[in-house]
Description:
- By secondary structure, the protein is α/β, with parallel strands linked by helices.
- The protein has two domains: 7-157, Rossmann fold (3-Layer(aba) Sandwich); 161-333, Cyclin A, domain 1 (Orthogonal Bundle), CATH 1.10.472.
- It has 14 helices and eleven strands.
- The model has no long low-confidence stretch (mean pLDDT 92).
Amino acid sequence: MMLVRHGFMIVGDPMGGKTCAYKVLAKALADLHAAKSMDEYAVEFKVINPKAITMGQLYGCFDPVSHEWTDGVLATTFREQASSTTDDRKWIIFDGPVDAVWIENMNTVLDDNKKLCLMSGEIIQMNAKMSLIFEPADLEQASPATVSRCGMIYMEPHQLGWKPLKDSYMKTLPERLTTEHKELINDMFNWLIQPCLNFIHLECKFLIQTSSIHLTYSMMRLYTCLLDEIINSGEEGKEPMSSQQITLWLQGLFLFALVWTIGGTINADSRKKFDCFYRNLLMGMNDQHPRPKSVKLTKNNLFPEKGTVYDFYFHKHASGQWNMWTDYITKEEM
């Protein structure tokens, strides 16, 4: 696409890999340049969010009092790259929504003229090493004139899925965790995440519609926050935790984090359905998703039968236990 178009759009919902795609390409070209292979050159790119600033701040504007012209962010960046004499590729990346308010002024740049026309009367000619990359979630507000001038690359998050995100997350786990502990976490992801995602999307109603990959990402962030005591055990006079205790905590905290992330955005009626489904899944009653051998869940490790899974939090004490939120609140208030 870059060889035949100087302007193109990477379109897709968040978490689809759009940013990573161009960053990996930039690093690959830099590696090829360092190896003096394939006659490629390194990349210099600047990222601009066009909707975070005003039109005057983007393109430039006249001062209402002195009538002096002040360049905007895009004008400064465009002139800098256009006047550069290096052989490196130069990209300007517009990371934000595309709409007619700001992008119509780019039509002369995107067509064969390749010229940025400013309100000051200055015309900046684009050089052969430059590319314009737009990174919107959709093209609802883009005009046909703009779309017809750009090449289109569509990236769908559901095609990527949550498993590459999980593989990346596994590499960020604390070094204090042993290989056995990491395998346990990996098995729990593979066992619980997809069945729960399938269930809430097919059987439940959302208070806030959220994609599967965002729910999984929230799950990972919450789970990481809950691991502080495990990470800090044995430091500064703190009593170190045994491997068995860490295993029990990792399991309990995972079950808790999943409830309040993947099961956290559905309505009250759907929570009752999810409670029943989740309990059956944890007890190994779902033949399609059997419990992994590495997961050792006893009756004490599972949610108590009274109430729903939303009524309990995992209390990080000794081997861990499930306490009711209402008891915790009452004690704090007293």
